[in-house]
Amino acid sequence: MWTPGYQLRQRPYVIERILGQGGFGITYKAKHLQLDHQVVLKTPNAGLQNDPEYPKYVQRFIQEGKTLARLCQNSHPHIVRVSDLFEENGLHCLVMDLIVGQSLWEFVETKGRLSEAEAVNIIRQIADVLVMVHNAGIIHRDAHPGNIMLRNNTSAVLIDFGLAAEIMPRVMSSKHPANLNFAPYEQFLEGSGKPTVDVYCLAASLYYAITGQLPTQALHRKLKNQALIPPNKLVKISNQINDAIVKGLGLEPEKRPQTMAEFLRLLDTQPQFVQIPQPHIELKSARGVDYRQLEQLLKSGKWKEADQETFNKMLEAAGRTQDGELRFEDINNFPCEDLRTIDQLWVKYSMSRFGFSVQKKIWLEVGGKVDLETERKLGDRVGWRKNGRGISYNELTFTLRSPVGHLPVFVRENLWFLNSSLASRTVSCNL
Fold this sequence. Notes:
- There is one protein chain.
- The chain has three domains: 13-97, Phosphorylase Kinase, domain 1, CATH 3.30.200.20; 102-266, Orthogonal Bundle (Transferase(Phosphotransferase), domain 1); 292-428, no CATH class.
- It contains 16 helices and ten strands.
- It has helices at residues 54-72, 104-111, 116-135, 163-167, 185-189, 195-211, 218-223, 239-248, 260-266, 292-299, 303-318, 328-332, 336-349, 356-365, 372-382, 419-428, and strands at 13-21, 25-32, 38-44, 82-88, 91-97, 102-103, 148-151, 155-158, 385-386, 389-390.
- The chain is globular and about 70 Å long.
């Protein structure tokens, strides 16, 4: 291990202190000598160098470091940023941002449990990060309160991306004293690389944040038949959030939400439009368009990819694929059958936050006219305009925390141009 005061040779860092040590990794607080700012350095545990599998551990460490660096290019506000990967005296080292603040674990231990609204807000931020992480093929496996850092007590950042659990599935990636209470039983008995592991861990973290108490250990529930005490037996919370936590803590993986996007939808406490139950959507098209890929993207919570697929399918339905854009006449004559299929898919999988019929309702509320003033009001409401101007496509946000009606977007150059025409078409199509 590097000791305080040790100065690295490959990079201008000096070690200040050890932050933590797990089964595979060690983290240090360090200072950049030239820029005079503090960072976190993470290395594999040198004590494992005699393990015959150590070279494989190091290769996975490098691979995960590169993957995390690619994730950080999205500049997600709730993910710790990885800025460098290098080798120092035979040890590979990741450089990450130092998050100033308390962990969720420390906060609850010192200040007590959070209100339902505060706890849900924090966990939703982390769930949103994990949707992106899962889409990149990574399972965190350790999203417990000790790895959720709080800035200003409200903004959450996920740290420690479970590298050890990726490499050594039978060993927890950190030695946090509480994480036995936050992991599903299969993580200890057999290891798992499914999103349901992170769903369980995050549901357990929400349980702890709201109640101030630890949920019954999954191993005890599995092996000793101990019961889980529902959170509403400990504190007063809404039925919706109580049910979301209990579902997330399903003992068997198949009993939990199967994706983080699905769990995130269970936590959506914002006002929603009434949704007509749609157990199954027939993917009808008047032009023979195949909407199966769009449904899969929406079901997985891949909102940006789904938006791009929607745009391409609308071009196909309108016979404008080669031209790459839609005109007024294309919108006014767009097949109602296809418009309805696209809308139903978006409404169903976003829990009524997104869809053309959602945008239509807002359009009617702000005037219901095909004119510039209504376009601007619509854009202001759904987040297509900021500071009095229409935003570019790259400025859109592709999460369930986006404004109601923010997606889908079928125009690429000027986001509030032509949208009133489409809203008007949804009226004539009786969406």
